[in-house]
């Protein structure tokens, strides 16, 4: 409602498309720019050495991360992250579908799953370390052990809640088991599955960082902790910045995939809202 | 026409729901037969077990007693000889599939070549006047058009009988009239056998060649009424015929009686 | 009569199956080290872990650590919720602000809060304050985003109704905006409570300020696997408790609203 009215007034006042583009440009970048300026001014005035100037951080960023460090620290981290997320999705959706379709299994496992979901994922790091030692596999397993729960539980919930008329339709047209899975159960659960994946992504990122801070001699998390221990403040900030960029990148990719996978869902919601 | 072969035979059908607070006898004893190429409407007071009957016919529910026979063999589960059009089109069409995808889905397990399948889908969509909408998603269409998609899906499935469960209960009056004419047209031009369940008396008389009036629950067939209106029907002239009014008054009376629990009255003479 | 009896039977069956599942899990856990599938040094016996739990529950030092963790959690959650409520309401109600803050929020929100741990340690050392920075940062966004959704979700017809009857700004806020946003806030609060607990314990593990997390880290470095498993179980129970309590609160506040909102995929 409100946005609609305001956009109408902007068009009337703003003098054509050029004005509107400029306005949205200002809206998008105005505040970040302002914040950077405030930061820069504050940094030059204050003596607090934990907040270096933005330009210093930017220099440190190019020096630290562009070059061999990217291949040695960043890529392996991202590789493990991707592997962990991929495995979590496959395991979570496969198990979740089976559990969601079988009522007795669901009731059997429910309290257990509730408990496992409630364990703060990072405390699993020492456990996995104990079981697997400090290896690359361990870091991937750590990511899976945390990220799989939201995906698994959301899949169970989504599969369980398949609409009764939709199921009856499939039954009356004798749609085969496999087709029912592919064209009914999984698409019907997909909004919930995607919601689970979104939660899983942020857990996975956290676990990637912490497992490297804990037990590693390479990787993004390790680097940042290393800079902190050696009081390389600007470099440490640049690492935080890089992690932020990774987070934003993940969110962007997820947004794109989600919009594609759930196009029908968003369209449907828009229609039913109007 | 006596030479028509028997398509669907229902004999002493009884359905009891075992519910927590005692058993509920939804259907008492229903028997009727339907010939190939007929359009039979089933009406009854609300809550008389119409949907239960239909689900038993379609093999979605197992009757407690009695027999449903399709082409001489008993119906024990969903069969390719029948296609159901559900009342809740919004929940019966899959929103993640396009219109074409929805119509095509039940054909996937039939042994057809891709071209045959495509042709069936195109043909069915044309029959319901939605040839242009194949790439849309169901939710982008109006309610009436969505129900057309569901009908197209049933047509493409090439059943021997199409079973429709109050299909137009949720659309507005204008659309409803159009859809009724579509059903008549499919019946006349394609010689489709249709079982049409409705609670609307006018609709049952306008559409049917026979109207089965059901009693209140536990249900039996209160009357099996032949509708002797000309087979060419249209919304204005047919509904204005004196005979139409007679028939609908008669059915109305029957249903009132059914609600009160009284039994058969004599069918109206000519 | 019979309705309630069958329903009770079904709940009973469900409860029984759940207990069987739980018992089965514990038995399997016990059997794995018994048959030496995994060395008991890495996966200790359930019975040992249970004994350790009983022992710890009689130890005041354990409860003090637990109290420290929950204090960090409580302070962090309270500060984050308060800040998110105030800022979220302001930003959500003013369209200009909503547009202007969009990119900034979308950049700041996905930053994993644990990335800030080194910074927090530099600023505050091994203190609770360092942990609070992380907890507040992470749980703030959970509530903030929900508040913005909630405030923006005011039904347009309801809004027009309020306007046509000449409700003042203040009346509209308290009778229209807040009731609409309340269920969203409660959802945000539930998510924030879980996130705050995760980060309270994580921060203790990594930073080393006293609490459950540091207990876990100590057991690990000391090779005390029984203690490690026992404390992990405690964190799970704690998480379960927090989830249950906040889900209960959320459901209470949602009860009148559910039908309108329908199912929400999250």
From TrEMBL, chain A:
Subcellular location as annotated: Cell membrane
PROSITE patterns: ABC_TM1
Keywords: Cell membrane, Membrane, Transmembrane, Transmembrane helix, Transport
A UniProt-annotated Pfam family: BPD_transp_1
Protein's membrane topology: Multi-pass membrane protein
GO biological process, one term: transmembrane transport
InterPro entries with a match to the protein in the record: MetI-like (IPR000515), MetI-like_sf (IPR035906)
GO CC field: plasma membrane
TM stretches of this protein: 21-42, 78-102, 114-134, 140-156, 201-224, 236-257
Family: Belongs to the binding-protein-dependent transport system permease family.
Listed name of the protein: Nitrate ABC transporter permease
Source species of the chain: Micromonospora endophytica
UniProtKB/TrEMBL annotation, chain B:
Keywords: ATP-binding, Nucleotide-binding, Transport
Record GO terms (molecular function): ATP binding; ATP hydrolysis activity
Annotated InterPro entries: AAA+_ATPase, ABC_transporter-like_ATP-bd, ABC_transporter-like_CS, ABC_transporter_ATP-bind, P-loop_NTPase
Pfam families named among the record's database cross-references: ABC_tran
Record-given protein name: ABC transporter
From TrEMBL, chain C:
Coiled coil: none
A biological process from GO: transmembrane transport
One protein family per Pfam: BPD_transp_1
InterPro entries xrefs: MetI-like, MetI-like_sf
GO cellular component term of the entry, any: plasma membrane
Keywords: Cell membrane, Membrane, Transmembrane, Transmembrane helix, Transport
Keyword Transport attributed: yes
Residues passing through the membrane, by range: 12-32, 73-95, 107-126, 132-152, 173-206, 226-246
Protein location: Cell membrane
Stored PROSITE patterns: ABC_TM1
ABC transmembrane type-1 domain: residues covered: 70-250
Membrane topology: Multi-pass membrane protein
Family from the record: Belongs to the binding-protein-dependent transport system permease family.
Stated name of the protein: ABC transporter permease
Organism: Micromonospora endophytica
């Amino acid at each position: 409602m409100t946005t609609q009215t305001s956009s109408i007034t902007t068009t009337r006042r703003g003098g054509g498309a050029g004005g509107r583009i400029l306005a949205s440009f200002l809206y998008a970048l105005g505040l970040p720019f302002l914040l950077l300026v405030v930061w820069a001014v504050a940094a030059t005035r204050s003596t607090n050495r934990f907040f270096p100037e933005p330009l210093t951080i930017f220099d440190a960023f190019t020096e630290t991360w562009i070059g061999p460090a990217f291949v040695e620290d960043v890529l392996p981290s991202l590789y493990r992250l991707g592997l962990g997320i991929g495995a979590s999705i496959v395991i979570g959706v496969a198990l979740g579908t089976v559990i969601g379709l079988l009522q007795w299994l669901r009731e059997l496992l429910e309290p257990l799953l509730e408990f496992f979901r409630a364990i703060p994922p990072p405390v699993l790091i020492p456990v996995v370390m104990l079981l697997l030692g400090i290896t690359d596999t361990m870091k991937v397993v750590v990511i899976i052990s945390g990220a799989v729960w939201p995906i698994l539980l959301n899949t169970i919930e989504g599969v369980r809640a398949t609409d009764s008329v939709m199921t009856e339709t499939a039954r009356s047209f004798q749609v085969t088991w496999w087709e029912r899975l592919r064209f009914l159960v999984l698409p019907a659960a997909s909004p919930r599955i995607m919601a689970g994946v979104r939660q899983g992504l942020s857990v996975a990122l956290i676990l990637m960082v912490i497992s490297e801070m804990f037990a590693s001699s390479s990787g993004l998390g390790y680097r940042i902790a290393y800079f902190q221990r050696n009081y390389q403040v600007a470099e440490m900030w640049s690492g935080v910045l890089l992690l932020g960029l990774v987070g934003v990148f993940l969110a962007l990719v997820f947004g794109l995939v989600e919009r594609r996978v759930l196009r029908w869902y968003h369209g449907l919601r828009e229609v039913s809202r109007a | 026409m006596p030479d028509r072969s028997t398509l669907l035979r229902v004999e002493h059908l009884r359905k009891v729901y075992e519910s927590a607070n005692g058993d509920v006898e939804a259907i008492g004893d229903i028997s009727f037969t339907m010939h190939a190429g007929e359009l039979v409407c089933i009406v009854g007071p609300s809550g008389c077990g119409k949907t239960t009957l239909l689900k038993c016919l379609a093999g979605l529910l197992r009757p407690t007693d009695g027999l449903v026979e399709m082409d001489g063999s008993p119906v024990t589960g969903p069969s390719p000889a029948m296609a159901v059009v559900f009342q809740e089109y919004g929940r019966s069409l899959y929103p993640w599939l396009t219109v074409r995808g929805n119509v095509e889905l039940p054909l996937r397990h039939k042994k057809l070549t891709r071209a045959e399948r495509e042709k069936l889908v195109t043909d069915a969509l044309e029959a319901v006047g939605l040839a242009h909408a194949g790439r849309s998603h169901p939710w982008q269409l109006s309610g009436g058009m969505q129900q057309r998609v569901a009908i197209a899906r049933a047509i493409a499935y090439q059943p021997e009988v199409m079973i429709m469960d109050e299909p137009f209960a949720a659309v507005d009056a204008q659309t409803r009239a159009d859809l009724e004419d579509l059903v008549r047209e499919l019946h006349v031009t394609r010689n489709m056998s249709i079982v049409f369940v409705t609670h609307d008396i006018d609709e049952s008389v306008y559409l049917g060649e026979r109207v089965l009036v059901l009693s209140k629950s536990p249900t039996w067939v209160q009357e099996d009424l032949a509708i002797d209106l000309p087979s060419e029907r249209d919304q204005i002239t047919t509904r204005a015929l004196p005979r139409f009014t007679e028939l609908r008054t008669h059915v109305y009376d029957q249903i009132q009686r059914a609600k009160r629990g009284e039994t058969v009255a004599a069918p109206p003479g000519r | 009569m019979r309705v309630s009896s069958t329903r009770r039977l079904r709940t009973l069956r469900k409860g029984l199956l759940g207990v069987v599942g739980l018992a089965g899990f514990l038995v399997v856990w016990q059997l794995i080290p018994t048959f030496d599938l995994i060395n008991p040094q890495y996966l200790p016996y359930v019975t040992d872990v249970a004994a350790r739990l009983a022992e710890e529950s009689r130890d005041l030092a354990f409860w003090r650590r637990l109290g420290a963790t929950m204090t960090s959690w409580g302070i962090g959650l309270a500060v984050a919720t308060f800040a998110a409520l105030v800022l979220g309401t302001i930003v959500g109600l003013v369209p200009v602000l909503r547009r202007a803050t969009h990119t900034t929020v979308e950049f700041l929100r996905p930053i994993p809060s644990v990335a800030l741990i080194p910074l927090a340690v530099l600023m505050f050392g091994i203190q609770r304050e360092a942990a609070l920075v992380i907890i507040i940062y992470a749980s703030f966004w959970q509530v903030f985003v929900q508040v913005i959704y909630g405030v923006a979700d005011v039904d347009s017809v309801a809004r027009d109704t309020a306007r046509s009857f000449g409700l003042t700004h203040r009346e509209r806020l308290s009778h229209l905006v807040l009731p609409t946003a309340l269920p969203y806030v409660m959802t945000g609060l539930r998510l924030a409570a879980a996130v705050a607990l995760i980060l309270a314990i994580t921060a203790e593990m990594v930073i080393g300020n006293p609490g459950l997390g540091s207990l876990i880290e100590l057991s690990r470095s000391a090779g005390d696997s029984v203690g490690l498993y026992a404390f992990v179980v405690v964190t799970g129970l704690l998480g379960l408790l927090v989830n249950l309590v906040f889900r209960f609160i959320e459901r209470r506040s949602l009860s009148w609203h559910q039908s309108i909102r329908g199912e929400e995929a999250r």
